[in-house]
Amino acid sequence: MQALEKKPEVLISGKTSFKLEVPYKLVETGRKNGKKPLILYLHGFGDNLKSFEARCDSMLTLNAFHLFIQGPYPLYSRSRSKPVSEWGRAWYLYDGNKQQFIKSLEISAEILQEVVDNLIKLIDVSRICIFGYSMGGYLAGYFALTRWKHITDLIVINARIKTEIVNQSSWTNLKHLNVLALHGIRDDKVNVEPQQKAVDHLQKNGISSKIELLDTGHGLDDIYFKKSKDWLIEKGYKS
């Protein structure tokens, strides 16, 4: 009888980091002197910096700094008809596991924070708004709730604000936040009810927040930009 083969011995097992390039672009509109708001735009799944900047063109009528950042995870194009720079991007990796979701959100939030921290040393910012659509909306909500010292205004479109990440003792740190949730009643990708409950939870904890339900679907229609601009102007932004 042959002797059992000895299994190979694992000497070392570990992990190492893998660097990804995350492009960003800062645009200034309006008068060049004095402080002005910074608006950070987070695209949805499959978009990229260039395409989302074009979609958000109407927001550039606001007197502000406009920061567009691209998600770190490339979406492989099987058609091979596009260069890598034009591939769509994603903000996080999600497999249905809650802890994996939070871990991946945190990694992307750290990327955003690094960019914002470096830029606010160079520009005169009065307040910061984060504008997130769909996948970018999930990250926008997470960033605002975990980096509350940075954010004054939060706009989340067709996503859900993950209020469950906030410890009960931490709600007092968020009292300065202004939150607008916009959601299409015909959204077939993200259910509106969980977002309604999230906004209710924010309100119960003293956060100035509201949800507007729009007669449209998941796509980023012009009405979302109009509602966003009107709300920001109400909050003191200049057009």
Question: How would you describe this structure to a colleague?
Answer:
The chain is an alpha/beta fold. The chain is 28% helix and 21% strand. It has helices spanning 49-55, 98-119, 135-146, 192-204, 222-234, and strands at 24-28, 36-42, 65-69, 73-74, 89-90, 125-133, 153-157, 178-184, 208-214. The strands form two sheets. The chain has a seven-stranded mixed sheet, with helices on both faces. Strand 6 (125-133), helix 3 and strand 7 form a beta-alpha-beta unit. The termini are far apart.
Briefly, what is this?
The protein has 239 residues and is an alpha/beta fold.
Radius of gyration: 20 Å
As laid out across the biggest beta sheet, the strand order is 1-3-2-6-7-8-9
The general outline is globular
- Give helix and strand order, one letter per element, not per position: EEHEEEHEHEEHEH
Secondary structure topology:
Blueprint: E1 24-28, E2 36-42, H1 49-55, E3 65-69, E4 73-74, E5 89-90, H2 98-119, E6 125-133, H3 135-146, E7 153-157, E8 178-184, H4 192-204, E9 208-214, H5 222-234
Parallel strand pairs: 2-3, 2-6, 6-7, 7-8, 8-9
Antiparallel strand pairs: 1-3, 4-5
Helix pairs in contact: 2-3
